[in-house]
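Q: Focus on the chain.
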Amino acid sequence: MDAKTAVDAIFIGKDRAYNRRFQQMCGHYLVDPVACTPASGWEKGQVENQVGVIRRRFFVPRPKFKSYAELNAWLEDRCLAYAKANKHPELRDRTIWEVFEEERPSLVPYVGPFDGFHAVPASVSKTCLVRFDKNRYSVDARAVGRPVEIGAYADRLECWQDGRIVGSHTRAFGRNKTIFDPLHYIPVLARKPGALRNGAPFKEWALPVPII
């Protein structure tokens, strides 16, 4: 993890002031972080070596997926299959899975994934759009004129205002893309019904076939 993502201030030795979201993640997973010395990359050798082992074991040749959900499901299956088929590195008479199953009753129960997102404030344009990471996303037309907070996840964006979600989209990568949800513009149609024919949010809107 990039130090700027987790650390607000660096003190003498390995003392750090970690930011609030990082501390929340550590508390969720019961992790006690240990910082590396600045400009001492060799201290991360063991971690980076383990990452390299996993990369070579599961990601060569490089697989392709349509979504993070598909990737995670595939990776879970591969990890379980590996654990059940390979011997434990120290207890050679048993598999990794058998040792894990023996230890499972002593482990802290898994409480689910951490709600990890990057929160940034944003203004809403007159065209009901917010800008994030070089792309634009629509929000409810009733949110225009007041700021929102964007919660950016790895795979999606949520826009919050006054304690409610006013926009939710699959996250777009690249740049200069505009992602619309036509339902955000329903209040606009009440004032300008002609926008349904020519408005950009409605050009690719698949409406039901009219009843004749």
